[in-house]
Amino acid sequence: MKQTRSPGATGPTIYEIVVRGELSQRYVPAFEGMTLATGGGQTAITGPVIDQAQLHGILNRVGDLGLELVSVNPTHEPAPSAPVG
Amino acid sequence: MATRRQAQGTDARPTTEAGRSLLPSKLTPPRISLRQVPRPRLFDLLHAGTQQPLTLVSASAGAGKTTLLASWSSTRQPPGPVAWLSLDPGDNDAGKFWAYTLAALCQSSAVPGDSRLRGLVLPPEPDDSVLSVLVSGLAELPTPVVLVLDDLHDITDATVLEGLEFLLRHAPRQLRLVLATRVDPPLPLQRLRVSGQLTQVRAADLAFTVAEAADLLAVSDQVRLSDDDLAVLHARTEGWAAGLRLAAMSLEGQSDPHRFVTELAGDDKAIADYLTGEVLDRQPEELRSFLLRTCIVDELDGDLADALTGGQGGESMLAHLERANGFVTTVNSRRDSYRYHRLFADLLRYELRSQAPDQVGGLHRRAAGWYASRGLTVHAIDQAIMAKDWPYAADLMARHGPGLILRGEAATLHDLVGRLPADLVQGDSELALLGAADGIVRGDLEAAVAQFLAISQREPLSGKRQGRLALLQAIVRTAMAWQLGDLDQALVAGTEALGLQSQLGTDAGDDDARVITLLTVGAAALWAGHPDSAELHLREGLAAAVRSGLTSPRLACLSQLAFLYAMRGELHEALRWGTNAVELAAQEHDSASSIQASVGFLALAWVAYYRDDLGGASRYADQAAAASGVGWPPMRTGVAILRARLQRARGDPAGALRTVAAARRDLAGWSPPLHLRRWIVLTEAELRGAAGQHQSASAIRRSLEGSGPLSGGEALALARLHLAEGDAAGAAAALEPCLDGTAPGAFLMVPAEAWLLDALASDALADHDRAATSLERALDLAEQGGSRRSFLDAGAPARSLLARYHQRVPTSWSYLDELLQASAESVQASVAAPRLIEHLTEREHTVLRYLPSLMTYEEIAADLYVSLNTVKTHAYGIFRKLGVTGRRQAVRSARELHLL
């Protein structure tokens, strides 16, 4: 997991959280404010994260839903405009 | 999504409010459905683990942790009875966590009736000293006990985790801890791991083998899978329990299971996602709708289900769901309360929000109304907030907030207000004040000032809301004054609140708030020295608490009434009410109850003191001090005075003076009511007089005379001071209001004591007839009320009086003799602290253990299979070595020397 800058210090950072399995629309409310992009047997959950506390909250939700975490990365790319699923 | 996942008290006990009484459903493992597969290899792991202090079951959601532990618990394999506790995020409070843990332990058959764990009442903030008692109580258990803490990942509070670490570090040998969690707990496990004392059951262990998966699917005879398909399904789910369970549900009634498995294997969807869709799509519309509508609460019974669906038959539907496919499990012993599997509930909630987002608010609103109608206030507010129905949430808070504040739940209320939109709270005086109540009550003056300023600058409100706001302000002032020990102020503000409640009628809030206001005013009146008004309020509060089924205020009223009767010298009544109170507290086991019970313990301590059971008084005083925790200031004073009296009775007047002087210095830190201050001052004066400091004693006496009317107990103390100075006429004058019944009975007005003092004064004034009559009355009263300590505290003058009037007092011969003997011993005990002249022999120790009993020497001899003379020889040997002259005195000395 690389970290390009400290989230929270200069506004939200866009994070990409990849989980195994392609998630359906059912999961959109679980990750409010994030977009879900599926492909290749994985789902990328992308969106702005204000601070580490929020990030841990999202990771907990991944765990609560029994999903398998593949990677977590901060990114500078803008999030896709519409949820995909 | 429900971020505040509270265990919800749907078993309709109005007192099972979050944070108050304990929810029984948290203390039983979920019932294991018939569809459960036995898993011997994991049972073996647990068996090995529970031979040692700690077993950690750590794996992600849906791995089957709870099911495994619940099914193992129901077998005969655990090394001892299983105590079960299902944790939730609401347990991040040390008081609550340990209260639940203790309740779980006591509910198991591992804890015998006489274990010290049963009598343990926890303070709101248990520290290491309390946990030490827990540890030693556990170490003494006759059998090992398996304590399962399920969902430990919900515990993040540092204090709770430190306490758990303390428990592990001191691992009492009988405790076998099993922790089930989704994430490894932040506990120092390395030491245990290195020494081989930690057994771990992890995801790889929990994953179903192919054979176990076959068993799971075979439970339903509707499912037929070939070995190849089974292998494919096992590979696709990776043995994940939740995945296999969902697959089993989906497969039921499938005409072509092979195709189902092939499609599943070929799909890239997350397994839970795919299977949830399959399961839901296969259900009849009625069932599907039932699932989606009822998943929004954590725990439900048929009645709540009907309220949510707007239909009927919720109960049979839930029973069917449990029986047919394990969607839900029962959570209480009556089997009428159900819970969805957590993972499945989450998936259902997301499904609801994506399929019918417009229904979510309405469903939460229905749940809120249902909880409100059952008096489950905190749950009701929680659901109203999730419904985003702000006016309803605000209304619930306004109605129930006062009750929550007075019950010490201002912090919960603060959290609830914090979940409302900020602009709504800022624009509403009532909500702003409710949210700030926490800080104000805790004595955060800055918050108080800021809040009152902000409110006074607002636009005027409508008449009704203005009245409610005034009530709320009175309630907050009452709670603040109460916690600071400013009883006069609490009395003023509380009386104002009671008046406003009567004026506002049903707009004032619920029964709860009224009961607690009555209790607060009654207790404040009692401690401020107005027992008659206190009795009226406490009796009314008790009746209302019983009517509304509110346990905690009922316990508080019982305790305060017990203390009231003790202060009036009505020891029989004090004993009756106090016993009721502590018995109720022992059943409840939570920290709120323990604070309430502390006053009851103090009442029992005074009763024991007057009955000359000094050991009992001392134990009750310790329990009172422990239960009140950091302490409510007036309790500190009450306990200190009793302890000083005990020290004096045990022949340590210097220690007694130190105790009471410390209590007097403590008064400077708060605003004690006049009567409490006088009580301290008088006790100190008496102790000074007894210690030979007659000048300072009489200076204190003079300063009190002319400081306004005295209560009965104060007049008695004054008379004792006069007598000690040799001023019998002054004593007789001071006693008059006590004897003709015109003195108010606040603070230790023991009637026997008044007549004894009058006998002493009359004797000194050479009025021998009156002395004899008064002594006789004193003896009668002391014998009836069991207040023999009054005679012993009066010391040598009382003994001389008893001896001289022996012939003139026609009744109570045996009692009089007993008093003379006890008084002689007491005088002796008060001059010399006990010491052991020579070590006891083993046989003497054996006999010594019999001495506190009621057995005669003959009975002891029979019990030990020795002759009467042998027992007597040993007894005299004991007396000689302890430097005492009688059995009773020997017991007292032996106790002080810790020989007993």
Shape of chain B: globular
Whole-number tally of structural domains of chain A: 1
Shape summary of chain A: globular
In CATH, the architecture of chain A is: 2-Layer Sandwich
**What does the oligomeric state look like here?**
heterodimer
Distance between the termini of chain B: 60 Å
Q: Nearest-angstrom radius of gyration of chain B?
A: 33 Å
For the largest beta-sheet of chain B, the strand count, sense and barrel status come to:
5 strands, parallel
* Distance linking N and C termini of chain A: 25 Å
Report on the structure:
The complex is a heterodimer of chains A (85) and B (900). By secondary structure, chain A is α+β, with helices and mostly antiparallel strands. Chain A has one domain (13-75): Alpha-Beta Plaits. Chain A has one helix and four strands. Chain A has one helix at residues 52-64, and strands at 13-20, 35-39, 42-49, 69-75. In chain B, the strands form two sheets. Chain B has a five-stranded parallel β-sheet, with helices on both faces. Chain B has a two-stranded antiparallel ribbon with strand order 6-7. Chain B is globular. Among the domains of chain B are: 36-205, Rossmann fold (3-Layer(aba) Sandwich); 210-261, no CATH class; 285-383, Arc Repressor Mutant, subunit A (Orthogonal Bundle), CATH 1.10.10; 709-831, Serine Threonine Protein Phosphatase 5, Tetratricopeptide repeat; 842-896, Winged helix-like DNA-binding domain superfamily/Winged helix DNA-binding domain (Arc Repressor Mutant, subunit A). The two termini of chain B are 60 Å apart. Chain B is built from 47 helices and seven strands. Classes of the chains: A alpha+beta (85), B mainly alpha (900). At the A-B interface, loops of A face helix 13 and helix 17 of B.
Question: What's the quick description here?
Answer:
Chain A is of the alpha+beta class.
Q: Which terms summarize this structure?
A:
heterodimer, A: 85 residues, alpha+beta, Alpha-Beta Plaits, 4-stranded antiparallel sheet, 4 strands, globular, disordered N terminus, disordered C terminus, B: 900 residues, mainly alpha, Rossmann fold, Arc Repressor Mutant, subunit A, 5-stranded parallel sheet, two-stranded antiparallel sheet, 7 strands
